């Protein structure tokens, strides 16, 4: 059965998503949507012209018409203003809320059965607004954040310890931002817990604190280095992993911004937690046992998400419904 993936936003992440999806053969049809139609059409044509080299048979189309996303199996949203140096994710809120409202209406009218992955920042608030604006089921609307944050955390650990990243498993919970919660107690490196590696003095507490802080500032570090633009390779790879788990019913456990309805003591809010993604979307929220420090940090993160959502309601009161 043919699969269709539509990408809303043809910027750096959107273009990278399209290329990765084509290379992986995840979809028969890829639609790149952008109000700057030349950007969407140009990237679609450029990627299509690489098919003879890379050997894929995917149809790529660039458009600025929401009707072209009709019958999409998966939609990945990157539309919005990216961060600039010195800009926080919170600064983006007003502008990107307006953009996501238009996107939600386009999806509701043309592809209401799709599994929707949101990458636009400030992530937790934008994905929550997207679900409210679109009216799609909560299990079919999810945010990409935890996979990216976890990958950054694992990379920094691998560099410090001199271990292959493939030997490290870990999770990052909470909001996507400065209050995200890396979980050292749920981190395994080459079969050993990070706690035991700390005891063996192979990494110091200060080293770990620095790595956690660098993870939290991971996006800002790249924004500063690039000067113009923000991260796109790692965010795109993370979004593709979510789409693949849904399309292939892999039922992977992935940290994502998902709707919580009592899990972790949180209700009616999107936040980063491990979930199982399969053919029905978010099929289950995995509740980890958190120690007091982890739970306290998670609660701080949830408080920050709630406060930012209250700011969003002040911008658009319809979000309170």
Describe this structure in a few short sentences:
By secondary structure, the chain is α/β, with parallel strands linked by helices. Helices cover 44% and strands 20% of the residues. The protein has a six-stranded parallel β-sheet, with helices on both faces. The protein has a three-stranded antiparallel β-sheet with strand order 7-10-11. A three-stranded antiparallel β-sheet has the order 12-13-14.
Tally of helical runs: 11
Taken as a percent bin, the fraction of beta residues is 15-25%
General shape: globular
Give me the secondary-structure category.
Answer: alpha/beta
Number of strands: 14
Give the terminus-to-terminus CA distance.
38 Å
> What order do the helices and strands follow?
EHEHHEEHEHEHEEEEEHHHHEEEH
Biggest β-sheet: strands ordered side by side in the sheet: 3-2-1-4-5-6
Tell me the radius of gyration.
19 Å
What is the residue-mean pLDDT, rounded to a whole number?
95
């Amino acid at each position: 059965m043919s699969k269709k993936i539509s990408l809303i936003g043809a910027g750096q992440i959107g273009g990278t998503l399209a290329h990765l999806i084509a290379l992986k053969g995840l979809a028969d049809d890829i639609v790149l949507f952008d109000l700057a139609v030349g950007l969407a059409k140009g990237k679609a044509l450029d990627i299509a012209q690489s098919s003879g080299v890379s050997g894929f048979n995917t149809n790529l189309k660039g458009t600025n018409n929401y009707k072209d996303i009709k019958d999409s199996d998966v939609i990945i949203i990157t539309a919005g203003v990216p961060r600039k140096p010195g800009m926080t994710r919170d600064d983006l809120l007003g502008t990107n809320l307006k953009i996501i409202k238009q996107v939600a209406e386009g999806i509701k009218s043309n592809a209401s059965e799709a599994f929707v992955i949101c990458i636009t920042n400030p992530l937790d608030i934008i994905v929550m607004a997207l679900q409210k604006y679109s009216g799609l089921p909560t299990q079919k609307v999810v945010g990409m954040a935890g996979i990216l944050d976890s990958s950054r955390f694992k990379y920094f650990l691998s560099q410090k310890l001199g271990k292959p990243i493939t030997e490290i498993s870990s999770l990052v919970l909470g909001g996507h931002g400065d209050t995200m919660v890396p979980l050292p107690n749920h981190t395994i490196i080459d079969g050993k817990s990070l706690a035991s590696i700390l005891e063996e003095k192979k990494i110091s507490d200060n080293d770990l604190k620095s790595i956690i802080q660098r993870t939290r500032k991971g996006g800002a570090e790249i924004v500063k280095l690039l000067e113009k633009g923000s991260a796109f390779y790692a965010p795109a790879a993370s979004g593709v992993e979510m789409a693949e788990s849904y399309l292939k019913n892999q039922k992977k456990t992935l940290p994502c911004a998902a709707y919580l309805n009592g899990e972790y003591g949180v209700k009616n809010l999107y936040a980063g937690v491990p979930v199982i993604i399969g053919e029905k979307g978010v099929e289950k929220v995995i509740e980890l046992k958190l120690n007091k420090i982890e739970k306290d940090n998670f609660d701080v993160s949830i408080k920050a998400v709630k406060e930012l959502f209250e700011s969003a309601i002040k911008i658009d009161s319809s979000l309170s419904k």
